[in-house]
Design brief:
The protein is about 40% helix and about 15% strand. The protein has a five-stranded parallel beta sheet with strand order 4-5-6-7-8. The longest helix has 27 residues. The mean pLDDT is about 95. Bound molecules: zinc ion (ZN). Zinc ion binds next to α7 and α9.
Length: about 290
């Protein structure tokens, strides 16, 4: 949410103004739950205060306490209502606490005790370093119930997916694959390694060098885009800002992420997670890593 003046948080909920057309909206835990019921979400998320990156422990604690109060209200609203569409909906609580170990541990214990169907770790990917993000996972995960699914909110990039799964998280949500796709950035299995800068996970289909290429976006990829269209065609669509271009790169990027998650599940059950991780994060080759 851009612009602090657009948002006002009080103990009961949040009021914000649309950055599109200025209309005012109010969200409380109860309204959030009713909205997610109406949307038919498979996994509903308790209404939380996503703590911004701060070194002020009092601010982080205030935000965490608000999240805990809203967690209880979200769960009560959830239990009072029922699914509108004939299938079960799950409700996950959210752990907050910023970059502070004591707060994160308190939040993990508090939210775990509330009886949610699963636990989400929130307040990450807000500008902290990767080391800080992994530390949050290291503090929180050992305190979560072993038998319930764990979700990390707003993550992640390819290396984060490997690092956080290794620490015990099951699922993620992230705008990364679709946002990159809309900018013409095509995800590559294994990425491209560089000697003097971090590995890049994408290439830009808008570059002139792809204007005549008859190859698919990623040779060997079995997604609908790669099985049907050439780099040159997708490049052309981006050049003329034809909406199909954004759609085709989005299909490819989502396919790649879903296939990666499939491969990771397979590797975990075969005891080969570390090998798969190494093949993505240390290999110099950018081809042939997807199982298809
Ligand atoms: Zn593809």
């Amino acid at each position: 949410m851009g612009g602090k003046n657009l948002v006002r948080i009080d103990h009961d909920g949040v009021t914000f103004r649309s950055h599109w057309e200025g209309s005012t909206h109010r969200f409380t835990p109860e309204i959030s739950i009713a909205t997610q019921r109406a949307l038919g979400a498979d996994i509903m998320i308790a209404f939380d205060d996503c703590t911004p990156l701060t070194d002020d422990v009092d601010l982080a604690e205030e935000s965490m306490r608000r999240t805990h109060a809203w967690s209880g209200r979200s769960r009560e609203a959830f239990l009072r209502g029922k699914s509108l569409y004939g299938y079960r909906q799950a409700l996950y609580g959210v752990v907050q606490g910023g970059v502070f170990q004591t707060l994160r541990e308190e939040s993990a214990r508090t939210v775990s005790a509330l009886g949610f169907d699963g636990i989400a770790i929130g307040g990450v990917s807000v500008g902290e370093t990767k080391r800080q993000m992994y530390a949050v996972a290291d503090w929180v995960i050992p305190l979560l119930p072993e038998e319930k699914p764990r979700h990390m909110l707003g993550v992640g990039e390819i290396e984060d997916i490997f690092e956080i799964i290794e620490r015990g998280v099951d699922t993620f949500d992230c705008v990364m694959p679709t946002r990159l796709a809309r900018m013409g950035h095509v995800l590559l299995p294994g990425g491209i390694s560089h000697s003097n800068r971090p590995r890049s996970w994408t290439y830009d289909i808008q570059k002139r060098e792809y204007a005549e290429s008859p190859d698919p976006l990623v040779p060997g990829c079995l997604c609908a885009t790669c099985r049907t269209f050439s780099k040159a065609y997708v490049h052309h669509l981006f050049r003329v800002r034809e909406l199909l271009g954004y759609r085709l790169t989005t299909i490819h990027n989502l396919y790649l992420i879903q296939t990666l998650m499939h491969d990771i599940r397979h590797a975990i059950s075969n005891g080969q997670f570390r090998d798969l991780k190494a093949s993505w994060l240390s290999s110099k080759e950018a081809r042939g890593l997807l199982s298809g």
